[in-house]
Amino acid sequence: MRSRLDAHFRRWLGSAPLARKHQLIISEERNRPGWDGRLRPIQGITGPQGSVLAVAPQFERVFASVDLSELIADLHAEDPHLRLAEDLGGPVSFGMPVFRWSEQAAEMPDLGDWVDADDPRLPDWLRPFNGGVLAAFDDDDYMAGVGIKQHNEIGREISVGTDPNYRGQGLATQLVAQAARAIIATGGVPLYQHGEDNIASARVADAAGFPDRGWHMIEIRPDPEWARH
Predict the structure, then answer these.
(1) Residue 98: C-alpha distances to residues 2, 197, 202, 214, 224 (Å)
(2) Amino acid 228: pLDDT
(3) Which residues does residue 128 pair with via DSSP β-bridges, in sequence order?
(4) What kind of architecture, by CATH, is found in domain 113-208?
(5) Domain limits, the chain
(6) pLDDT tens-digit map of 111-165
(7) Whole-structure pTM over 0.85, yes or no?
(8) How far apart are CA 62 and CA 55, in angstroms?
(9) Contact 210, 101 (CB under 8 A)
(10) Which has the closest alpha carbon to 147: 167, 123, 181?
(11) Neighbours of 91 (CB within 10 A)
């Protein structure tokens, strides 16, 4: 599974993390739309085995003199370089969500069905996903659902949401585990992200087979449209 993850990183960021190294990758890939059609010109990954920050060519000048280890430490401390924000121009938002992947999803009974994203029973938030939608219904009432962000043929990120009337029943965990098993079976690596303070999402990840290995995404968004994402 780690070889699949590294292959995803190479396609997504231009390199997999290398031991104890912080890599700056200048990549035209960052100017191509992501899974939802939006541009994310500055993204990366950081963890115990190293860091990769992929930057679109138009921002190379800004990052050429940046010490990536200091930048990552500042992001962890929620105190990013103000000079960096100024150099990027305009409003900038920063984030370091927890990044997880599963090597073996939890064995649980299948709960949901794979449905079309335009299924009228689904809430609006599930409609944009490009990698499939897995949902559970009570008759025709939506209970919980998973959307798959297909970043490439290997990396597929799981997002999950439960209707407030059905929370507390473990539905999210069952659906995430079911989706992860399907991704693994078809040659992909299941990914999961959540905010550092999102305890409920962290519990779902733990129970579904996505341990916290100390990895984080690096998100730097130099435009109001990306900042709202």
Answers:
(1) 18, 10, 9, 8, 23
(2) 35
(3) none
(4) 3-Layer(aba) Sandwich (3.40)
(5) 2-98+215-227, 113-208
(6) 999 999 999 999 999 999 999 999 999 999 999 999 999 999 999 999 999 999 9
(7) yes
(8) 10
(9) yes
(10) 123
(11) 13
